[in-house]
């Protein structure tokens, strides 16, 4: 997207429109709109994919809110028994090998960290997506402003050419 903004701000795009050919202007408009639609499509794909990203960084440090984890396998030891797919709350994960958890039954225990996974989605992904959406809004605004300017220049030039041709006859 940065390359698009740089391109929109380049001297060739900022230069005054000198063409009289409507096809050239149409292709120019189509190119800019296609770029914006491509970025929107990429953002939609990223939004869909972001729902499946596991927040791996939470394995090292807990967020400020309670965090759920899901058991990957069946696990049983002393006071705790987890079936595959059971959810637990992570109370402490400062030890990379063993995590302190609380089961849905209210039992607190330590289990090997390897038997748990923190399920998607990662909130930081959604924050990044929101930033990208804001960038697309800025890109669209800049593109619309530039296209309006190009259209006005093109139409002004076409009108002045038409008037000069009419005075010849």
Automatic annotation (TrEMBL):
Q: What are the record keywords, sorted?
A: Phosphoprotein, Repeat, Signal
Q: Does the keyword Nucleotide-binding apply?
A: no
Extract the signal peptide range.
Answer: 1-15
Q: Record's superkingdom?
A: Eukaryota
Q: What is this protein called?
A: Desmoplakin SH3 domain-containing protein
Asked whether the keyword Transferase is assigned, the reply is no
**Pfam name, any one:** SH3_10
For this protein, the record's Gene3D superfamilies field holds: 1.20.58.60, SH3 Domains (2.30.30.40)
One of the protein's GO biological processes? intermediate filament cytoskeleton organization
Query: Where's the Desmoplakin SH3 domain?
Result: 55-119
Matches recorded under InterPro entries: Desmoplakin_SH3, Plakin, SH3-like_dom_sf
């Amino acid at each position: 997207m940065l390359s698009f903004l740089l391109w929109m701000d380049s001297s060739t795009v900022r230069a005054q429109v000198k063409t009289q050919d409507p096809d050239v202007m149409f292709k120019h408009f189509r190119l800019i709109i296609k770029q914006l639609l491509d970025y929107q499509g990429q953002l939609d794909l990223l939004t869909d994919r972001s729902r499946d990203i596991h927040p791996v960084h939470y394995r090292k440090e807990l967020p400020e809110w309670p965090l759920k984890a899901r058991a990957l396998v069946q696990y049983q030891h002393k006071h705790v028994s987890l079936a595959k797919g059971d959810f637990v709350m992570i109370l402490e994960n400062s030890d990379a090998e063993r995590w302190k958890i609380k089961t849905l039954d209210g039992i607190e225990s330590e289990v090997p960290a390897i038997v748990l996974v923190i399920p998607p989605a990662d909130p930081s992904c959604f924050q990044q997506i929101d930033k990208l959406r804001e960038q697309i809004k800025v890109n669209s605004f800049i593109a619309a402003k530039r296209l309006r300017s190009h259209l006005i220049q093109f139409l002004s030039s076409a009108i002045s050419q038409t008037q000069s041709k009419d005075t010849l006859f």
